[in-house]
């Protein structure tokens, strides 16, 4: 084996190890934010749980706010398909498509757990709420609004989002019955017309 070949292999191994470490830190960060909330989570605690030095967390992500934002982006990724859900079909069915998509994301335990962490942190802390707003507005709401051929598209999407986030808070976070235990198809049937009205109504 030549020295150059050995060097390339070490380089590939180092990049793989770096990616694995970064992913492990993100995974631990989501767990910490979920269990402790934004206020009680620290970079030092994340580093300890991930089995790395806190300086390495700062190296990959920067501040705690930046760690939180990176963790949110990964957790929020499934929801970023919402614009495609809006666009895929006639405009008179957009409310049901978007409502069904959002409830589907929340009903899936894999995607629900990190979303719960996001909402809880955003409710408890203004810094976390600011990160959440930036992500939702820039990566989700504006993209959905771009699919609508309607006046005040961004306001319409925000009103629809308020309806859906409110339902999610009551059903999955606060767990208020009968909403928390109601059949999801029944909820979609009742909420979808309201969302439709926000998006395309007069």
What does this 3D model show about the protein?
With 202 residues, the protein is an all-alpha fold. Helices cover 80% and strands 0% of the residues. The protein has ten helices and no strands. The chain has helices at 3-40, 43-50, 54-61, 64-76, 82-87, 94-107, 109-124, 126-145, 153-173, 184-200. Helix 7 (109-124) crosses helix 8 (126-145), helix 8 (126-145) crosses helix 9 (153-173) and helix 9 runs antiparallel to helix 10. The longest helix has 38 residues, at 3-40. The chain is elongated. The termini are far apart.
Annotation keywords:
single chain, 202 residues, mainly alpha
Outline of the structure:
With 202 residues, this protein is mostly helical. The chain is 80% helix and 0% strand. The longest helix has 38 residues, at 3-40.
Low-pLDDT ranges: none
The best one-word shape is elongated
Oligomer: single chain
CA-based gyration radius: 20 Å
Which whole number gives the mean pLDDT?
84
Instruction: Tally the beta strands.
Output: 0
Fraction in beta strands:
under 5%
Q: SSE order, as H and E?
A: HHHHHHHHHH
Helices and strands, with pairings:
Elements: H1 3-40, H2 43-50, H3 54-61, H4 64-76, H5 82-87, H6 94-107, H7 109-124, H8 126-145, H9 153-173, H10 184-200
Helix pairs in contact: 1-2, 1-4, 1-7, 2-3, 4-8, 6-10, 7-8, 8-9, 9-10
């Amino acid at each position: 084996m030549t020295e150059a070949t050995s060097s390339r292999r070490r380089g590939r191994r180092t990049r793989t190890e770096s990616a694995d470490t970064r992913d492990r830190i993100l995974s631990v960060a989501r767990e910490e934010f979920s269990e402790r909330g934004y206020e009680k989570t620290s970079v030092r605690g994340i580093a300890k749980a991930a089995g790395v030095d806190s300086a390495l967390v700062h190296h990959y992500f920067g501040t705690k706010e930046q760690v939180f934002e990176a963790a949110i982006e990964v957790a929020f990724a499934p929801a970023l398909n919402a614009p495609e859900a809006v666009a895929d079909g006639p405009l008179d069915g957009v409310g049901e498509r978007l409502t069904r998509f959002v409830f589907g994301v929340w009903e899936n335990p894999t995607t629900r757990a990190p979303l719960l962490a996001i909402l809880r942190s955003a409710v408890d802390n203004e810094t976390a709420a600011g990160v959440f707003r930036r992500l939702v507005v820039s990566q989700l709401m504006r993209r959905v609004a771009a699919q609508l051929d309607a006046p005040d598209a961004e306001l319409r999407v925000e009103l629809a989002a308020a309806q859906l986030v409110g339902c999610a808070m009551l059903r999955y976070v606060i767990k208020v019955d009968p909403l928390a235990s109601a059949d999801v198809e029944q909820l979609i049937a009742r909420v979808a017309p309201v969302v439709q009205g926000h998006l395309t109504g007069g």
